[in-house]
Design brief:
This protein is of the alpha+beta class and 196 residues long. Helix content is 19%, strand content 40%. It contains 3 helices and 11 strands, in the order H-H-E-E-E-E-E-E-E-E-E-E-E-H.
Length: 196
């Protein structure tokens, strides 16, 4: 156990303290195609707990429960992190896990992990990683949504960033169309079999 704690104390800070420079920068097409789930929603709950991370031992994870308002990409199958309507199969809630968090006086921070706030409206690109659903490309898979204009229903804007696949803030409508085109282009027809 002591050797794992020593390894964790050496590797975990190196892994997380390198910051965002250690994360492979993705373009929007790769982000969308690598994601099993793309959705918009509101953060309902944030809860940290201890768990195993790869072969490094025990770390702090944070689970973020999100009420889904719109699904852009869904992968068939049932996962414990996903709640669906029984009749339609439509996703109603998804729980995303990220590395880092706080439990009492103990905390761990990984700059490559995204951050969430309760009540925050978000666009998330997610995939299965280390036995749970996580944002695709670490921090690159989470975007904050905000309203532009004083009168509801104002335009919903997706906040972009210099080192993100979505470089500048854009309307959710424009981004939805762009992602839909990427997903359609990414679906290649199955090769034809000879002799049949």
């Amino acid at each position: 156990m002591k050797k794992y704690l020593l390894l964790l104390s050496l590797v975990f800070p190196a892994f997380c303290s390198t910051g965002r420079a250690g994360v492979v920068e993705l373009k929007l097409d790769k982000l969308a195609l690598r994601s099993g789930y793309i959705f918009c929603g509101e953060v309902l709950e944030i809860r940290s707990h201890r768990g195993k991370f790869l072969r490094l031992g025990e770390v702090i994870f944070t689970d973020v429960r999100i009420r889904v308002s719109e699904t852009w990409k869904d992968t068939p199958g049932q996962l414990p992190e996903i709640t669906r309507q029984k009749k339609t199969g439509k996703i109603t809630e998804i729980t995303i896990r990220y590395l880092g968090g706080r439990i009492g006086d103990s905390w761990q921070k990984c700059p490559a992990s995204p951050s969430f706030s309760k009540g925050e409206k978000v666009l998330v690109f997610a995939r299965k990683f280390n036995g749970s659903l996580s944002t695709t490309g670490w921090f690159q898979g989470k975007y904050r949504l905000h309203q532009q204009g004083l009168e509801p229903p104002g335009n919903t804007i997706v906040g972009g960033g210099k080192h993100l696949p979505i470089r500048k803030s854009t309307s959710i409508e424009a981004l939805r169309l762009q992602v839909r085109e990427i997903l359609q282009r990414g679906k290649k027809p199955a090769p034809e079999r000879k002799g049949k």
